[in-house]
Amino acid sequence: MKGGAAATGQAKSRQGDDLLKEGDKCARTSLFKWTPDWEGAFMAYEKAALCFKAAKDQDKCKHAHLKAADAQYKCNLVHGAAKNYEAAGHCAREQKNWEEAVDYFRKASSLYTENGTLEKAAEVLTQAARGLEDSNADAAADLLLEAVDLLEQDSKRGAGDAFKRATALLIRNQRIERAIGVVGKEIEFLQSNSEGGKGLHELHRSHLALVILHLHQNDYVAADKAYNQALSCEGFAPSNEGRAAAELLEAFENNAPDTLQACLSRQVFTFLDGPVLRLARGLHVNDSAASGSSSSSSMAPRQQGETTDLRAQLLARPAAPASQQENTAAAAKGDDHREDEDEEENEDEEDEKSILL
Q1: Is the pLDDT of residue 229 over 50?
Q2: What is the mean predicted confidence (pLDDT) over 30-54?
Q3: Minimum mean pLDDT among 4-13, 125-134, 310-319, 342-351: which range?
Q4: How far apart are alpha carbons 144 and 137 in whole angstroms?
Q5: Which CATH architecture does the domain made up of 1-116 adopt?
Q6: CA proximity to 173, closest of 143, 150, 196, 139
Q7: pLDDT, the chain, mean
Q8: Domain-by-domain residue ranges, the chain?
Q9: Is 357 helix (H, G, I), strand (E, B) or coil?
Q10: Segment 238-248 mean pLDDT
């Protein structure tokens, strides 16, 4: 069986070599052929790529896809060229050459953008980011934020997920300050695109996450500022997220570990994304945390007292019906998981199609 498979692979590889030569012949000019036949060339190159794929020769398969991409672009078939660059990226990924893969995925994304298919362009950047997560978190986050920029220009669908992936990636790699910036951008995006329901709940969760990130950095002043800015968000103050943020700040200001632990036991925290939840559970109060970062000393006592009084007044008010908020949160979280599963299934299908087409 192994011998037969090897023979078949060799035959497919030879067939692929012949098709590459056929494509090169179409691309050449001669005394009696003044213009290249780019259409014939890319068709031969794509057939060659299929042969090399069957032969499990990723290097030659990648080479054939790159030649097909160049030929299709010269035929003004931008979408087809993008798909071939994407397929070349998948070949490089199989070879564990992620720098090369990212380069091809970027080229594919650029061509998808040129073709007007921005959602696909963003999807390719997201795939590229996943390959860099372990080796270069900052570069991966850059790719995810580029994907967000594209999605904001298009349907905006998937932008929230890209923000979350970038935040989670940065937190896992201890890039907390940069994660704070990403969550801030996510809040701006959600403020512009949330209209009640799940969108508003996502916004509340992001505001709570921002408070947690600042407290993790022992920056009480920044956390308090983030909370005060969140109060302008519709429904945040009486929400479970708003009350949790207020209780966290109260615990840190009063250096009260029991208050902190009681707050962290609230169900609202379980609806946060995993990396943010782990940071929240790792919070602890001490003198440096309660007094904040070096910038906290610049906060006037009167101003700090005013914000504390405001939080106390809000905490004294009755909470919004917990069951309703928790059901909304659970539904939103469930939708997130279903979207992630659907996305992974779709990506697997697209990976297969990208190589076959």
Answers
A1: yes
A2: 94
A3: 342-351
A4: 10
A5: Alpha Horseshoe (1.25)
A6: 139
A7: 83
A8: 1-116, 117-193, 195-285
A9: coil
A10: 95
